[in-house]
């Protein structure tokens, strides 16, 4: 794991185990850094540095759940939406001018959780660190490779932070992040078979490193060094929570014949509006994106969001990037003037921050990711937003989609949970699944729920974490 910069003492080092060592551990601090993911010869992937930012909970972080945030795309930077709008201690105002600084966020998720943001490979602040092999595309990768990289970063982070290595983990994925979350959870819950050549439902690409890495995590953090692998149900005691913001779970399969469509929805009467939020114009959507881009390329705003100055993040300044490789467009030089003034100039083949990278071939979810989702749903507490004004991922159709699957039925109860500010439960019934209840609140929001309904979302997530037991320690019999 690459070095990280911490808010406060730059010499901070963590040590010990997740409760299994009596050594006194250093207090958790806000930090930002990179995790270096090794090259993978089977896909000709070069080494890459994936950017992360960690913010501890305001109170009792050693016992609070860890929420892991990522945007979708694939290829969209987490630092472009989830880290910039409505989740952390500082947030941008979607109504403000592009150059307005971040402001204090009264709905920060640090009120109830530890927060870990991760930028996907080659997007946001993440970058490759050597010349790729011929034919390699430095962009969003197929979902199996993509999910494996996020799992690698998460397990490396937990190994370096024993204070919270045994805490409940909830994946928070937006849009394509729903696909990523399903595959990540499948890999983690079925870690014992990842070393076998055929591990993914009807698919391929095995990850032998994951089996060894999870066995170390189980022995070190969970203190279960029995020589017997945990079952998927046992793994889910820690890795059994997902919060999905307008998720794409199965790609185009969600647009099944006869599915409810936005065109038939009376709330979708703004044909000239932004598809991600039909209440706003495309120009308004562009301004929101430009605001995030301006902030991430401004050193002062960077420090407000991530708690450390960009020049103190090992691997970020020009002199520490090695053979960094990205594919920026021409206007990046002018847009990055402030960051380059603080960190140094870069060659044309590099950039400090990119909001998006293009996918490398087929990448959307499909029948295999749907199989993974349905498998993890058996043992994973699930929260899905239902944003009323999103026509890109039309979540109003999700109940009908699940009900269209062979052997499944689904229905929505708008009276549960009792007393909720925004009731809504999606019950999915299947022969192998049994009945699983998904929290399914409705938001007066578009695709990016944390942009237009941050307070409502934060309150619902906090209550849900309490309801499903994620605020309690992971305990084994």
Just give the CATH class: Alpha Beta
User: Largest sheet, if any?
Assistant: 9 strands, mixed
Order of helices and strands: EEEEEEEEHEHHHEEEHHHHHEEHEEEEHH
Number of domains: 1
Query: Which spans have pLDDT < 50 for at least 5 consecutive residues?
Result: 9-20
Quickly count the helices. 12
Number of strands: 18
Helix content: 10-25%
Instruction: Find the structural class using helix and strand composition.
Output: alpha/beta
Identify the CATH homologous superfamily. Alpha/Beta hydrolase fold, catalytic domain
Q: Indicate the proportion of strand residues.
A: 15-25%
Q: Judging by the overall fold, what is the CATH architecture?
A: 3-Layer(aba) Sandwich
What do we call the CATH topology?
Answer: Rossmann fold
The end-to-end span amounts to 32 Å
User: Overall pLDDT, averaged?
Assistant: 88
Rg, Cα atoms, Å: 21 Å
Write down the overall geometry. Answer: globular
Short description:
The protein is of the alpha/beta class and 477 residues long. Helices cover 25% and strands 16% of the residues.
């Amino acid at each position: 794991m690459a070095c990280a910069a911490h808010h406060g003492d730059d010499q901070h080092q963590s040590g010990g185990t997740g409760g299994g060592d009596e050594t006194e551990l250093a207090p958790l601090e806000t930090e930002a850094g990179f995790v270096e993911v090794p090259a993978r010869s089977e896909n000709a992937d070069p080494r890459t540095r994936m950017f992360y930012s960690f913010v501890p909970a305001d109170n009792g972080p050693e016992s609070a759940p860890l929420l892991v945030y990522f945007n979708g795309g694939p290829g969209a930077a987490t630092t472009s939406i989830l880290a910039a709008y409505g989740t952390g201690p500082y947030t941008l105002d979607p109504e403000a001018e592009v150059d307005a600084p971040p402001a204090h966020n009264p709905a920060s998720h640090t009120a109830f959780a530890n927060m870990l943001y991760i930028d996907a490979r080659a997007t946001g602040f993440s970058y490759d660190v050597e010349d790729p092999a011929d034919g390699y595309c430095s962009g969003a990768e197929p979902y199996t490779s993509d999910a494996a990289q996020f799992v690698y970063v998460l397990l490396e982070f937990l190994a370096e932070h024993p204070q919270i290595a045994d805490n409940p983990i909830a994946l928070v994925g937006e849009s394509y992040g729903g696909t990523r979350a399903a595959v990540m959870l499948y890999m983690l819950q079925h870690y014992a078979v990842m070393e076998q050549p055929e591990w993914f439902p009807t698919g391929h690409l095995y990850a032998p490193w994951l089996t060894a890495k999870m066995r170390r995590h189980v022995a070190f953090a969970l203190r279960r060094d029995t020589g017997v692998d945990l079952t998927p149900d046992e793994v889910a005691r820690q890795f059994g929570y997902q919060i999905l913001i307008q998720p794409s779970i199965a790609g185009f399969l969600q647009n099944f014949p006869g599915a409810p469509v936005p065109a038939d929805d009376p709330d979708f009467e703004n044909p000239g509006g932004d598809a991600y939020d039909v209440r706003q114009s495309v120009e308004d959507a562009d301004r929101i994106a430009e605001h995030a881009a301006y902030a991430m390329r401004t050193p002062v705003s960077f420090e407000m969001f991530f708690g450390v100055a960009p020049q103190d993040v090992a691997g970020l300044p020009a002199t520490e990037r090695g053979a960094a490789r990205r594919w920026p467009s021409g206007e990046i030089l002018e847009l990055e003037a402030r960051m380059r003034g603080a960190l140094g100039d870069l060659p044309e083949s590099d950039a400090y921050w990119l909001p998006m990278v293009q996918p490398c071939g087929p990448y959307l979810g499909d029948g295999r990711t749907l199989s993974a989702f349905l498998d993890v749903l058996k043992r994973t507490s699930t929260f899905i937003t239902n944003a009323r004004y999103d026509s890109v991922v039309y979540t109003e159709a999700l109940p009908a989609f699940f009900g269209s699957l062979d052997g499944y039925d689904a229905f929505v109860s708008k009276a549960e949970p009792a007393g909720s500010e925004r009731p809504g439960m999606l019950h999915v019934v299947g022969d192998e699944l049994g009945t699983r209840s998904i929290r399914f609140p409705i938001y007066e929001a578009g695709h990016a729920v944390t942009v237009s309904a941050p307070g409502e979302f934060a309150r619902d997530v906090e209550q849900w974490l309490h309801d499903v037991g994620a605020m309690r320690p992971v305990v084994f019999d």
